[in-house]
Request: fold
Amino acid sequence: MEYQNLLTELRDGVLIVTINRPKALNALNKGTLADLRQLFGTDALAIDGLKGVVLTGAGEKAFVAGADITEFTTIDVQGGLEMAQNGHDIFFLIERFSKPVIAAVNGFALGGGCELAMACHMRIAGERAKFGQPEVNLGIIPGYGGTQRLVQYVGKGKALELLMTADMIGAEEAHRLGLANHVVAQGEEVNKALEILTKIGKKAPVAIAKVIECVNTYFEDGEDGFKKEVVEFARTVGTEDFREGASAFLEKRKANFQGK
Ligand code: COA
Reply:
């Protein structure tokens, strides 16, 4: 796996992905977005036995400080459409990824960085993490799903406040609002994410994938998540893993899931 701006490490079945542009506070330029598309759309899917992905930022200061503002200088309306659509497509790849994806938020998660963290299935915040959607300071609105996903996590009133004031919030407030799953000592974000992924890695992989699909369906327009759950529940009942899980429980032993 070769990327312009991502570092990757496979550790005990978990792919640790570091966005590596620390001098620009890991801002998402076109190259980094192309890397993320390649990783979540192709490369990570081909890793045998993958348990999950941790996304973090290089350096001491930032997870991701937003879209790369230096690329905004020549953009026009058509370019804006293409940019937002591209971001949406990539962030949906992450949100719909069949293995858990956790953002280890080690600093600023602003604009596209906050949106990237929100597209992940969970967020672990270091004590110095800061979340925010500062786009209105620049005269634009979020374009990578921020107006939608922020509402999902913190509710309409708080989302409108954060989106209109451009205020940054710290890790504790993000946790209190439901945006961060956990707050940990600075530098422990990846370890906490690995701890959670190790736990999930012991569960039945098909069931985990179906949990992700069904929860995502709740937020999809025109889709009935309850109906989807009935269908997917039945699918999991048909898996070898279910037979193994039920037998293991009755035989008082640990289940050995094969992901089938
Ligand atoms: N795009 C491109 N470059 C960025 C960037 C972004 N979103 N965010 C930070 N950088 C660059 C800065 O231009 C600076 O580059 P330089 O050293 O060549 O001057 C470098 O990263 C360090 O940032 P700096 O602003 O000096 O750090 P700071 O600690 O004073 O402030 C922030 C940190 C995050 C508060 C500030 O960088 C900031 O507000 N960034 C923009 C956030 C934003 O609006 N994001 C949404 C974009 S849509």
Summary: The pocket of coenzyme A is lined by residues 24-25, 27, 65-70, 108, 110-112, 134-135, 138 (CB under 6 Å).
